Amino acid sequence: MCGIVGYLGENNSIDVILEGLSRLEYRGYDSAGICIIDPQTAGLSSFRETGKLNNLKKVLAGKNLFSRIGIGHTRWATHGAVTADNAHPHSNELLAIVHNGIIENAGQLREELIAQGEKFYSQTDTETFLVLATRYYKQKMDLRWSVQQAFSHIRGNSAFVVMTAKGDEIVAIKRAAPLVCGQNNVNGDFFVSSDPYALVGFAEDIYFPEDEVICHIQKMTSGSMISFHDLEGKESSSFQKKKSELNADVVEKGEFEHFMLKEIFEQPRLIAQWLDFYVNGPGKEDVLKFQEYKSRTIHIVGCGTAWHAGLVIRDFVEHFNRIHTHVELASEFRYRDPLLKEEEIGLFISQSGETADTLAAEELCRENGLQTFSIVNTVGSTLYRNCVGNFLIRAGQEIGVASTKAFTLQVLTGYLCSRVLSKDFEGHNDLVRDEIKREVELLAERIDLFLKDSEGVKNIAQKIQKHKGFIFTGRRRYYPIALEGALKLKEIAYVHAEGFAAGELKHGPIALIDEDIVNIAIVSPELYEKTVSNVEEVKARNGVIVTIGPKNDAPLKEISDFYIPVDFEGLPNLGPLLVNVVNQVLAYYIALFKGTDIDKPRNLAKSVTVE
Ligand code: F6R
Questions:
Q1: Distance, CA 514 to ligand 1 centroid (Å)?
Q2: Euclidean distance between CA atoms 317 and 344, whole angstroms
Q3: pLDDT digits (tens, 9 = 90+) for 552-562
């Protein structure tokens, strides 16, 4: 969840690292730090500030420093409070370290090291690695060997990047945590980062090392070089080298005030591209291979928004295929001793492909002999590499911490998988394919139309933003959309919001209703009367009613305080995705009026790589 950037080259590392960290700040922003070689003392020099990266930038601004090597970090606190002492890099006179992940046996190691006379200056688990590596480094002054030794003592999923006071090498290693290296082919600069996104424009070649492979970047007389080694110190070929697939405009907000809004507006285009890939293009074959697994019970697992996508997908799979489908939160699934059979399949949904609980759930399924598949955005992520098959959602980089476009494409991809598994798809049935195509095209068109004219939703957002609480309701496939709407709103606007199945309100939650509570009621054409009755029940208790319902529905408009018309015509399956975009825009504007930090909401981080 923390962001890591390291650099060794001919330019000023501070500029490169600060730019890289600013791109990764969405992954964690409790504190930020950088370590370089001080031009005056020729020793390690660290700068660490709590709060956003800007605080660190301000401190560095007046200093006029230049260093050809450096490592930097943005933190999302796990062990130890948000203080400058706990911020990374952690350093001493010999080594500096940045870390992403958790050292599970840090407590025990710390006690042992203290008993042996070592001193600790922070409350972090990271410092145990620094102390261990330094002890080894003092023996041989060999960085690669020291990191290798220290790494063998620690348990848990982590990535470490270490530099020495000599200023001529960087060593990086990881276990089940994201880490890449980069190379600029023009000037020979080398980079290391927790995300290739930080390296856009800096590195054309990206190296993806396997777990427990040591990446060694060294400055030689002939220029810098990179090499990879296993834990025995032997040269290793367990890495992949690829051209960076990201282009420069992914790091810009363009005409939008926030990345979240940019990403909401990208949806019609991305859906069209997705369709081209899966229904007309090369993705067709990938998805058809999935037919081989039809009639097997499916366990769908994810966290947060990805779990909500799973709930919608379950409805599709069960409806079209009549096969048992379970949907579970990864954090619960992995600890509840689930009943798993070899003939079943696991389907893991994740934007990042690095969510710790989802990875552990996938591992559990694999260990139990299940075939595992992912619906994932990030090519080369740990989930992507661990599953036997992957369905890429092709959403591009998602920077806003609140997931928007990924959800839409996750559900679409799951929808396609569910149709492919079904009997009526046998023999690549063109009729079914055309039906899917038409509905997806219509969805993109309707989202586009709505986004071009979303002023009405903005006005509603302004009028309801000061209310005490928000209750989202919906039925069937719209129930997960209610959950997702509430999650989006609480994440970015910091207001209390809950999603409920509309029929469930009177079993308890209706006690919450009064004139300070807004009910965002999704009134879908399916189960229309029943859902309208639920709206009436809330209205009778003075709740403020915002309906998202069929267009030209005068009676619905009449009972609503605010009415958002939606054209459901021709969207029998994908209507929930249109409504979800309405909820995304509503949440965005409520947050905008409240003045929160929309792209980087407090306490959150993109990609939750710790349990
Ligand atoms: C909410 C959100 C999170 C993620 C969850 C899973 O807006 O972004 O709830 O959906 O942390 O992340 P991935 O999909 O990366 O596994």
A1: 32
A2: 14
A3: 999 999 999 99
Give catalytic residue positions: 2, 606
Residues with CB under 6 A from ligand 1: 303-306, 350-352, 355, 358, 402-403, 487, 491, 607-608
**Digit-coded pLDDT (tens) for 122-150:** 989 999 999 999 999 999 999 999 999 99
At residue 237, φ and ψ (nearest 5 deg) are -110, 20
How many domains is the chain partitioned into structurally?
3
Residue 604 C-alpha to ligand 1 middle, in angstroms? Answer: 10
Strands, sheet with 469-474, edge to edge from the N-terminal-most edge strand: 496-501, 469-474, 517-522, 544-550, 562-566
Domain with residue 56: its CATH number is 3.60.20.10
Tokens of 217: 């970047």
pLDDT at residue 52, as a whole number = 87
Pick the closest to residue 43 from 143, 218, 164, 131 (CA basis): 164
Question: Which pLDDT tens digit goes with each residue over 157-209?
Answer: 899 999 999 999 999 999 988 899 999 999 999 999 998 889 999 999 999 99
Whether residue 208 is found in the same domain as residue 91? yes
Distance 355 CA to ligand 1 centre (A): 8
Mutate to test the pocket of ligand 1, among 608, 609, 611 (most ligand atoms within 8 A of CB): 608
The residue whose CA is least distant from atom 10 of ligand 1 is 305
| Domain match, 150 and 269 both | no
pLDDT of the residue at 261: 97
- 69 CA → ligand 1 middle, Å: 34
| Burial label, 40 (beta-carbon count in 10 A; 0-12, 13-18, 19+) | exposed
